[in-house]
Amino acid sequence: MAIKWFDSLLLRSITSFDDLAKKFLARFSIQKDKTKHTPSLLGVKQGDWESLRSYMERFDKAFLDIQNLPIEAAIMGLINNLWEGPFNHSISKKHPTSLNEVQERAKKYINIEENSRLGETSKTGHSYPPRDKDKESRKKEDQPTEKPRKYHNYTPLRVSLVDVLQGDMQHREHPTTSPD
């Protein structure tokens, strides 16, 4: 942000370092009151259909706005606010030790995501499939609550269950030993 401001200064509008310092402080002293703290990072969550690239860009911007943020806190904030997906599973299995590692791993998954989205776009004509919550709930309602039985016909027993259980109990009380 400071570089953009510096580049926007008119040519020869600064006559000395003191002049530059005054203009800089006048422009950026307002920003001092807007300092963000660690909890503000928790509000940066990946949206339902937000791409990983978009989320990482928003996260990086929020991270830069917070001063003295421990790296571990930033990594945990990023992991906790990702939606379920391949990148989340990868990071959960092997926790990164630096933000550079997070960004390198994210680049791989961003490329995979964008390549798969390009394939979907060419087939369907749009990048995201429409989300039909009613259809999902109807699928759940249509499914039977009990599992269907595997067999429809069973062979009838020639002995009653009581006799089978009594025989089992007698066998347990007086086990037969096999000759060795």
From TrEMBL:
It comes from the Eukaryota. This is Uncharacterized protein LOC107484795. Residues 2-77 form the Retrotransposon gag domain. The gene is LOC107484795. InterPro entries: Retrotrans_gag_dom. Residues 111-180 are annotated as: Disordered. Residues 129-148, 169-180 have a biased composition (Basic and acidic residues). Coiled coil: none annotated.
